[in-house]
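Fold this complex.
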Amino acid sequence: MKIFRAEWRKLRRPTLFFGSMGAVVAVTALVVSLLFLLIDSEMGNADRGQRITRDILALPSGISIGFSSSAGLLGIVALCVFAAQTAQEYTYGTLRSLLVREPRRIRLLIGKYLSMGLFAFFTVLFSAISSVVLAFALSGTAKVSTVAWTTSEAWTNLFETFVNVLISTFGYGTIGMVLGLLLRSPISSISIGVGWLFIVESILSIAWSPSGNWLPGSLLSVVANGGAPIGVTDVPSYSEAFIRVSAMTTAAALVTGYMFKRRDVAS
Amino acid sequence: MTAISVKGLTKSYGDLVAVKDATFEVPLGTICGFVGPNGSGKTTTIRMLLSLISPTSGSGEILDEPISHPERYLSRVGAMIEGPAFYPALTGAENLRVIATLGGFPISRIPELLETVGLAGRGDDKYKTYSLGMKQRLGISAALLPNPKLLILDEPTNGLDPAGIQEIRDLLSKLAKEGVTVFVSSHLLSEIEMISEYLVMLRKGEVIFFGKTEELLHRSRPTIVVRATKTSDLKRLKKLVDEIGNPALLEGDELRIDADEKWGAELNELAFENEIVLKQITPVRPTLEETFFTMTEEER
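Structure:
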């Protein structure tokens, strides 16, 4: 608990907290706005030129589509925060101060992870709230019926989407923390993480589509969507994706945690 | 009970031996200087004591707890290693709050500690706006947060102006009087000589001396510096003292004789008998720096 609270003192500073939350709201607003305002566009209104029609948006699940479409961007925020908060302990030299005060290294990692997890929870919460508010606000302009959005089915669906996006955000965060511990540099870990998950994986998936079944970014996208994204068929099921990506991130976290425990702190 | 006790502590990086078979003890309640040139293994030893790096071999105890179980003693140890390290975007006080929260130390002590190190009124400024001296002071206040029994400071006066150095020196002396053991590393031997009653001396990763500072300084023969009313007489005096068996060196208008200060009276008598009028007889004890260089020269 002491480690959690100490880490939270760093995360709650206004520029980081409100800056990140502002970025999350802005990105969510962009995604939801494109979804509703480009509803009649020939170029599509969703990821990779897909079209999400009025009929789909009018379903009980329609209220959550904008939110789940923002999951990848929330993932980038989580990856950046987890990677930067971890790696900067090396670049600032503060890791040695932390370890003198808490020499049980695995506890230190867990405390930091949980604290950053709370930060990630807030990003997802802010994104969910802003996406729902904006969806209602833009439904009139886009001529989308909101009758089904106020049913209990819609709210259950929204809650399930929230949990799935949260799991996916934690997945991206875990990858960020692992990269931060391995590379010990915020810039390297963020650039390699974002570059791999959002550029290299996309290229690999296009070049050889079955690779998406085993790439962490693709699997996290399936988890965030609660299954295959609309219009995508050749991806693993939700449970398969969840098991595979959980196994990958857990293994990476265990190996990195072991290395962190054993490694000399010489900087 | 000793504050620090290490036996055969060794740290190797491949073929490079950073610390070799270090064995020393630091008694409780003393200020112990940890001296040696840059690269002699001081920081590596301190890192091993604080469990930041694991020794290749050997063992050690801090406050009677083995260094393999740092969780048993680190709550009673304050430390600043390799200079201060804080979060630039946080204020000085907020940085201290992070450390206090992590260690479970009372946050209420922070204003008092900031005042102790001369940072009262600057605690709410961001760390990135601090000068090097202020950063160093904040590092010392962070080390004092646990109200430590043992304070380990690595080069604490780096970046401080003479007045700041004097303040830190006074602070360390005050802490020692209150029963805190201070283990302070520095390559500024004159600084260490002024405050340390105990010394651990390193050279190329090996401990070449540990014990009382006084004991070390007494190992080197003192010198008597002599001046005469007629400089030309010094040549005659040099011949006379050389014949007695005390080597002397003529340097400008003074003669430096390797002899104990008690021999001063005999020297005065000898000069008087030979009609040499001395205008100055000054016994000079070798400084720690001179002793250190003599010792390291001998070791080579």
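The longest strand of chain B covers residues 2-13.
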